[in-house]
Amino acid sequence: MKTTGIILAGGKNKRIGTEKAFIQLKPELSLIENTLNLFRKIFSEIIIVSNNPLPYLKFETRVVEDLFKDKGPLSGIFSGLCFSNSELNFVIACDMPFPSTELIKYIIRQPEDYDLVIPEMGGRLEPLFARYSKSSIPAIFFHLVEENLKLQDIPENLQVLKINLKEIEQFDPQHLSFFNVNTEEDLEKAKRLFSFLNKINN
């Protein structure tokens, strides 16, 4: 079944002090461009969710605004699902520089009758690297209305398939898909790693 790729672009990050999506991994390549490059190899429809859509229009990709303001990534997931033209949707945060293409493909290949297909690492779920069905919209809407914005609570009342560590490590033995950039230190580490990976892959 067709799957849409949804990128949560969010807003300014307090610790880095700028819009994460436009942080440069290397000259002429931002975090959002890196994700778009990868998604274009997998998905025919891509949606960027942002509270500030104007800067993203240059990417010639569909851009939508949060339907619930100031509700964090949960609202981004909800909004992306509502605007999507696909029953199945893969959601990722824009600040994850090293998503495994093969792991994404594995997740989206799982049986279609699950509301949520989500990796689990050390007992913790990864809701910003997961496949959501439109059937999850009512439950997520309920969480938003009730002001329960904890991403770890999303699976409540959903039919969930968890991707375990053994499955993850078939495609991403270093777990790099779940590395995200929250601080300047994270960014410097990401730049070094991105440069290293480019050298060994080229």
Brief summary of the model shown:
With 202 residues, the protein is of the alpha/beta class.
Which fold name is given in CATH as the topology?
Spore Coat Polysaccharide Biosynthesis Protein SpsA, Chain A
Indicate the low-confidence ranges by residue numbers. none
CATH architecture: Alpha-Beta Complex
What does the radius of gyration come to? Answer: 16 Å
Task: Report on the biggest sheet.
Answer: 8 strands, mixed
What characteristic shape results from the CA principal axes?
A: globular
Helix content: 25-40%
Number of domains: 1
Order of helices and strands: EEEHEEHEHEEEHEHH
DSSP, total strands: 10
Relative strand content = 15-25%
Oligomerization: single chain
**CATH class (first level) name:** Alpha Beta
Can you tell me the CATH superfamily? Spore Coat Polysaccharide Biosynthesis Protein SpsA, Chain A
Provide the structure class.
Answer: alpha/beta
Overall average pLDDT: 92
Spatial gap, N to C terminus: 33 Å
Count of alpha/pi helices: 6
Write a structural description.
The chain has helices at residues 31-39, 72-83, 101-108, 137-145, 165-171, 184-201; strands spanning 3-10, 24-26, 29-30, 46-50, 62-64, 88-93, 116-121, 124-125, 129-133, 160-163. It has 202 residues and is an alpha/beta fold. The protein has a single domain (3-201), classed as Spore Coat Polysaccharide Biosynthesis Protein SpsA, Chain A, CATH 3.90.550.10.
What layout of secondary structure does this protein have?
Elements: E1 3-10, E2 24-26, E3 29-30, H1 31-39, E4 46-50, E5 62-64, H2 72-83, E6 88-93, H3 101-108, E7 116-121, E8 124-125, E9 129-133, H4 137-145, E10 160-163, H5 165-171, H6 184-201
Parallel strand pairs: 1-4, 1-6, 4-5, 7-10
Antiparallel strand pairs: 2-3, 6-9, 7-8, 7-9
